[in-house]
Every structure is written in C-alpha cells, then in structure tokens.
Amino acid sequence: MLNNDILRRLRYTFALSDDKMIAIFKLGGLEANRETISNWLRKEEDEGFLFIEDIETAKFLNGFIVEKRGNKDGETPEAEQVLTNNLVLRKLKIALNMKDSDILEMMEKEKFEVSKHELSALFRKKGHKHYRECKDQFLRNFLTGLQIKLRPLEA
User: Could you tell me if 41 and 4 are in contact, meaning their C-beta atoms sit under 8 angstroms apart?
Assistant: First the structure.
C-alpha cells in the first residue's frame, strides 16, 4: 500500500486540516509545508503528485502518536528508515490506544475474518517464529474499518 494512500485515508478519517497535518508532522520531527502536503495527498495521476517516503510517513505516524497520547518521557521516537505495513498497524494501534479486541471487532465489521492468534502474529518482531507479514489487503481493511467506526455515513 502506498504511503500516500495511508496519509490520505488518515486525513479523511480524522478530518485533519492542513494546519493540523503540519502540526502533526512537526510533532514527529519534520517541517512540512502546505504545498508539499498537498502534493503528497494528490492522486498518482494528478500533476504535482509526490511520493511520500517511508521516513516522512514514519515521522507523521510518530507525530500522530504524540498528538493522540502525548510524549513518552518528553522524547520523540526515532523515525524508521523503512516502514512496513506491520509498523504502520502498530503505530496506529498505539496512537489510538486500541486493544486486539478493538481491531478484531473492526475487521469483523469489514467481513475480514482474522483470529486473535493471526492478529498477534502481526505485532511480533520480524525474527520471531510466529511473525507474520501484514499484507496490503489487511491494512486497507483496517483503515476502512477505522473510517467506518470514526466517520460513519450519515443517513
């Protein structure tokens, strides 16, 4: 899944304004301006589209954690150079203070069946024998479930 898609979905789900996004990037240790953010949010086929790098997305997610939970002992975590779907999922789980049962419930609403054991495997360290890679489909369904939960369609 493209980092740009993740950024777009989070912006919509949490109704983040340009100013709020700039502030979140700053909390993560990145000075981003309105034009750059606008180019990251464009569709791939649009003129001016820019790919957002892993480290920039990691800084946004770190800033999102600080925004939602506060600084841990006053320090900003170091942003990862390479960002995987597993890390994105973990960072969102931390930022939103979610339990495994919350994630399972959301995935169930999306009709995406996953067991508690399968879910816990996504949060293990890469070298662990039960580690499982988080596929794009899982992350996409998680983000959609999050969107449905936080921004339900008005009837």
Answer: yes
